[in-house]
Amino acid sequence: MQLPLSPLAPSDAAKLLPVPGVRLASAASGYRYKGRPDLLLMTFEAGSQAAGVFTRSLTAGAPVLWSREALASGGGAISALIVNAGTANAFTGQRGADAVLALSAALAELCECPKNQILQASTGVIGEPLEAERLLPYLSGLAAGQSHTAQAWQMAAEAIRTTDTFPKAASRQVEIAGTTVTLTGIAKGSGMIAPDLATMLAFVATDAKIEPALLSTLLSEGCDQSFNAITVDSDTSTSDSLVLIASGMADHPPLSKADDPEVGPFRTALNELLLELALLVVRDGEGAEKLIAISVAGAADNAAARRIGLSVANSPLVKTAIAGSDANWGRIVMAVGKAGEAADRDRMAVSIGGIAVARDGERVADYDEAPVAAHMQGREIEIAIDVGVGEGQARVWTCDLTHGYIDINADYRS
Amino acid sequence: MQLPLSPLAPSDAAKLLPVPGVRLASAASGYRYKGRPDLLLMTFEAGSQAAGVFTRSLTAGAPVLWSREALASGGGAISALIVNAGTANAFTGQRGADAVLALSAALAELCECPKNQILQASTGVIGEPLEAERLLPYLSGLAAGQSHTAQAWQMAAEAIRTTDTFPKAASRQVEIAGTTVTLTGIAKGSGMIAPDLATMLAFVATDAKIEPALLSTLLSEGCDQSFNAITVDSDTSTSDSLVLIASGMADHPPLSKADDPEVGPFRTALNELLLELALLVVRDGEGAEKLIAISVAGAADNAAARRIGLSVANSPLVKTAIAGSDANWGRIVMAVGKAGEAADRDRMAVSIGGIAVARDGERVADYDEAPVAAHMQGREIEIAIDVGVGEGQARVWTCDLTHGYIDINADYRS
Q: What is the spatial distance between Cα B246 and Cα B211, in angstroms, rounded to a whole number?
């Protein structure tokens, strides 16, 4: 099925910047998709460090189990990352694990590195074991054909797509101790997207020199406010993987402490990049017609605010109302009420598009639906909720629930 | 919007039995719906007892707050119940509470009873205060026009509908100490349906003589296995109300102890009736084309099994796959994995329509999709999951997620 381009796709492709110490190559293996790249190899300069955040699903796929273990046993050292789009290789028992091992062994030989310096990610149908022998023949060609160019990054973003209607990539540059470092990332995902993580793959590389512990901290913090703050359909994938790789090729003193002032600008750039990639995923939410940002304030704490925000963001009735451009704010109140978090019904306030709709537990006295209805006609919807009990706040993003979601998921085996 | 009849509607209307001590009348107030009954009054013989289970939403509607308080302060004594379909009167502040009080006061005068013997329920749009003055003129006519006939019950089931495509009602008869007693119930609900409770109203009356404490116990137990085991869209209404009324007109010794052997057959009949009504709600799930029953076994305990079942039942990807008659069992595994409950990936088993699909953490060796695909073409889908860690089990029901759901909820302000 060829899906039409999401109406929320960015109008211009992001300008991608190569990352010193990172090379990429893609191939069209025809494993599931025909006539397009579906296999990605990334390799990293010796000494590169990686940190990863993976799905919390109890039925995580074999590549996730492998990568988690490889990072742990190898102390974060990374030589190569291989990604296939077509089969998730999840819930595939020993055969799935064997396939992952076969790929890692072959790549370790090619890259002349220990097997636990190979990371893997797969995305696609759950329950079908990966047939490694169909991918192994492509490895040497991939290794030979690598490049560090912007075009190679662009092709990599293409290669990891499944139901995505556009490739997702972004870059940033920032200075560390007077040296310019680059961050470039790619992501995929459009359905089975819910926090912890979104159903998605994302790989971000930088040439900055960052010690493993700090790299993990920065990634966790950034993920929390980006990929863990988005939802398309409340479903959590078995394959979610977010990996941050630092090649260390940049010529600056290594960063190791979170409170080092030199970390600040890098942290900001990383967080911006992660949020940009995460929002690209929401913009490509299956069938999405509108991007919805939900701000929650006045909750008992930030975690409570997050749960209230996600309760609204995951409500099918809220999402369908927005699909219909209907300013049905009562459904927002319903979704707050079912979140199970403290909320003071008589102090609650709701605004849509910056216009107060309800205050002190009821509709505002002079409520005029016209400007709210006008906002609802747009592509980007802003909802703000104050639940009136404390200082906790959060911001989450989702998309509307449309006929397109049904079309894609009732017919496409993803 | 006139919705087409659900394809899952029962082919024959249930034969309803009048309940001694219970009279009903309906009226077309035109409050929101035109040309159909939308207002229901039920009155009960002096000495009738009621038990209620209400939404756990923190933004519960004014009628729910009233009824909960009335039952508590009146020790379960009930004289009348008034229901309007059109506005939920939820999140309406003091004006909503005033409207409820005005209706209760007027009915208490008509029925010559204390105000806390009046229960109320409302369903419809959230956020719009009830205009009591538009309903008050109908009360004396309703009180004068009551009857205890089967037709009055049938009309009552019609009067409480909103987006329901068919009226929901059922009866049972059972003996207590040699005396035949009757149970008849009506229900409404089709969207905003999730446990605790489903978004729905249900009223069940019996002429059995049952002490208040036992009545509450029996209702809670029965609700747990029926209305709290169904979900349409994971959204929890602000108005959910399930009320069981016992008029005590039947000529048998009062039941007061849960372990009295005479309670057994009544409990069974009540549980069956509640489940029948709950499944009618799922059969009328907005846009539903298929009824889905999910059995979970092998969980840590029954509560864990319930949560796993609901994680599957609420998964948009599972529900859309079933809408597309796609035997995409990997999505079932995904939904188990995200439930957050203990599951042994390597011992998990899944069957669809009684046919084993996965066993010991992977697809069965000789998997033949054909018979599973044939089952998926049907109207009633059976999913059984064993998560391999304990003895906990549960059974839950839902419906598929179709274009019809989007049609109804993107356009209809409910």
A: 9
B80: confidence class by pLDDT, cuts 50, 70, 90: very high
pLDDT digits (tens, 9 = 90+) for B126-172: 888 899 999 999 999 999 999 999 999 999 999 998 888 899 999 99
Cβ pairs bridging A and B (under 8 Å): 214
* Nearest chain B Cα distance for residue A340, angstroms: 7
B95 touching A (Cβ < 8 Å): yes
- Give catalytic status of residue A43 as yes or no: no
Mutate to test the interface with A, among B56, B57, B326, B381 (most CBs of A within 10 A): B57
What's the CA angle centered on B24, arms B20 and B26, to 5 degrees?
165
Rg of chain A taking only CA atoms, in angstroms: 22
User: Is B143 in a helix, a strand, or coil?
Assistant: helix
Interface test with B, best of A369, A406, A414 (most B CBs within 10 A): A406
Contact B269, B234 (CB under 8 A): no
Tell me which DSSP letter residue A17 carries. Answer: -
The pLDDT confidence band at residue A412, using thresholds 50, 70 and 90, is low
Q: In whole angstroms, give the CA distance from residue A202 to residue A157.
A: 9
- Among chain B residues, CA nearest to A193: B317
Active site residues of B: 199
Alpha-carbon gap, residue B168 to B157, rounded angstroms = 6
Reported as a single tens digit per residue, the pLDDT across A234-290 is 666 677 788 899 999 999 999 999 999 999 999 999 999 999 998 898 888 888 999
What pLDDT was estimated at residue A100?
96
Query: CB neighbours of B361 closer than 8 A, spacing ≥ 6?
Result: A91, A93, B344, B345, B346, B347, B348
What pLDDT, in 10s, does the model give residues A154-192? 999 999 988 888 999 999 999 999 999 999 999 888 766
CA distance B227 to chain A (A): 16
Please name the residue of chain A whose CA is at the shortest distance from the CA of residue B238: A334
Rounded CA separation A409/B316 (Å): 9
pLDDT on residue A197: 42
List residues bridging with B230 in a β-sheet: B397
ipTM of the complex: 0.78
Contact between chains at B125 and A330 (C-beta distance less than 8 A): yes
Global pTM value: 0.83
Average pLDDT value for residue range B18-42: 94
Residue B34 CB neighbour total at 10 angstroms? 9
